[in-house]
Write a structure and sequence with these properties.
The chain has 15 helices and 13 strands. It is an alpha/beta fold. A 7-stranded parallel β-sheet has the order 3-2-1-4-5-6-7, with helices on both faces. The protein has a 6-stranded parallel β-sheet with strand order 10-9-8-11-12-13, sandwiched between helices. Helix 1 packs across helix 15, helix 2 runs parallel beside helix 3 and helix 8 crosses helix 13. The longest helix has 20 residues.
Length: 417
């Protein structure tokens, strides 16, 4: 089959959606399919910029044909810039699909920019193939969670109708979701008798880190050998919670855990809520709380391996709207996780099912403190970390999950000619 994937970003852009798409595209080529990626020409970072000049047509590793269409590259720094980039990408991709020599058997839409499902269905009708969807973020629910539109407002109703149309029709081959809660919410947009298939994302790169490398990394950052390093690494956006972690840091600032270890909180990354952590550090300069920028990709493995406990959070209003992918990498490296969020969301279910960490309800600072004290007990972190690694092997394998996706997306045409 000739499969055409639509997503604004593709490596070397840093967007996680592009990284996952690259893994899948190369797997599909290995399985004998022709794969074309229609992506933009850079600009995932807030400042945008020109990573690639002009249009680039041709294979870019793994036999995948990557076409970087001409579009604006203002970046993600403001809503206006983002919308402008979205509009430019829509128009450029529609034009390219209309004049593509090799007709697509299936157009597969991701969800950046939003409502690519509508374009995929429309263009599949015009070009004679069918369409499928890999939902990374669910729209318009994202806009509701952001507070940008009212859940019961006219705009939400219009956008929900667009989403249902994009996922509908006899030509719709499959709709893929990332977690059980997302599959349930996506199912509300599907026609009677159809359901969203579930395939979790995977750890993109799992490296073996030696004890020497781990100790050197900790030492270079002033993390004591007997400190319990509690790490939050990644996006600090509006969909995440930090009040419970900072409350626990304040409570533990002058305490020593039962195991005789001081607790050091480390927050690395970026996002709109990073200011909350920076303000806390300014208020408690003597507390064991570090805040820093994103770690370079080549150092990420040793960075994660050097922590004793990993922090993950999600605002309940985002349940099923997105499924953060950081858990997969942490679990694959054998890291125990302390998750603050709903126990019924995908992350909460996975942490509980695996016994690879702790799940704490939003607002429960004492629960966070209790979990950290338990993690400091001899052998407890390594036991839960081993559980996490085993669960990742069974559920978050790149080999297994790309194979599953390849089978779904690579099936023969299911729609009318």
């Amino acid at each position: 089959m000739h499969l055409v994937f639509l997503n604004q970003y593709y490596p070397p852009d840093l967007a996680p959606t592009g990284t996952m798409l690259k893994d899948l595209a190369e797997r599909l080529v290995e399985d004998g399919h022709e794969v074309t990626i229609l992506c933009g020409s850079g600009g995932y970072t807030a400042s945008g910029g020109s990573r690639y000049e002009g249009e680039v047509f041709g294979e870019e590793g793994g036999g995948v044909r990557v076409e970087r269409v001409r579009a604006t590259r203002f970046g993600r720094g403001t809503h206006v810039a983002r919308v402008a980039d979205y509009a430019g990408y829509y128009l450029a991709v529609a034009w390219r699909l209309m004049w593509m020599r090799s007709e697509p058997d299936r157009i597969v839409a991701l969800t950046t920019p939003p409502f690519l499902s509508v374009l995929a269905r429309l263009m599949s009708k015009l070009r004679g193939g069918d369409h499928a969807h890999w939902v990374m973020d669910l729209y318009p629910d994202v806009l509701v969670s952001h507070g940008m539109i009212q859940a019961d407002g006219l705009m939400a109703g219009i956008l929900r109708a667009m989403a249902r149309w994009g996922f509908g029709g006899k030509r719709c081959g499959a709709v893929l979701s990332l977690g059980p809660d997302m599959a349930r919410r996506v199912g509300e947009y599907l026609e009677a008798g159809k359901e969203s298939l579930l395939v979790p994302l995977w750890a993109t790169a799992v490296e073996t880190v030696s004890e020497r490398e781990r100790l050197e990394w900790r030492g270079a950052r002033g993390w004591g050998e007997r400190e319990l390093v509690v790490l939050y690494s990644g996006n600090m956006g509006l969909g995440h919670r930090f009040a419970e972690f900072l409350g626990a840091a304040e409570q533990l600032a002058e305490e020593v855990s039962d195991a005789g270890k001081d607790v050091r909180f480390v927050f690395t990354g970026g996002g709109k809520r990073k200011g909350e952590i920076e303000a806390f550090v300014a208020k408690y300069p003597d507390g064991l709380v570090d805040v820093g920028d994103y770690v370079p990709f080549e150092d990420l493995a040793v960075h994660l391996a050097s922590a004793d406990l990993h922090l993950v959070s999600l605002e309940p209003v985002w349940d099923g709207v997105m499924v953060p992918s950081k858990l997969q990498g942490i679990f694959a490296m054998g890291g125990p996780v302390l998750f603050v969020g709903s126990p019924t969301c995908s992350i909460g279910e996975w942490v509980s099912e695996s016994e690879g960490g702790w799940v704490v309800q939003p607002g429960d600072v004492d629960g966070v403190v209790s979990a950290i004290r338990e993690a400091a007990q001899p052998g407890e972190g390594s036991r839960r970390g081993a559980n996490a690694r085993e669960f990742a092997g069974a559920n978050f394998s790149r080999e297994t999950n790309t194979r599953r996706l390849s089978v779904v997306f690579g099936e023969g045409s299911i729609g009318p000619p």
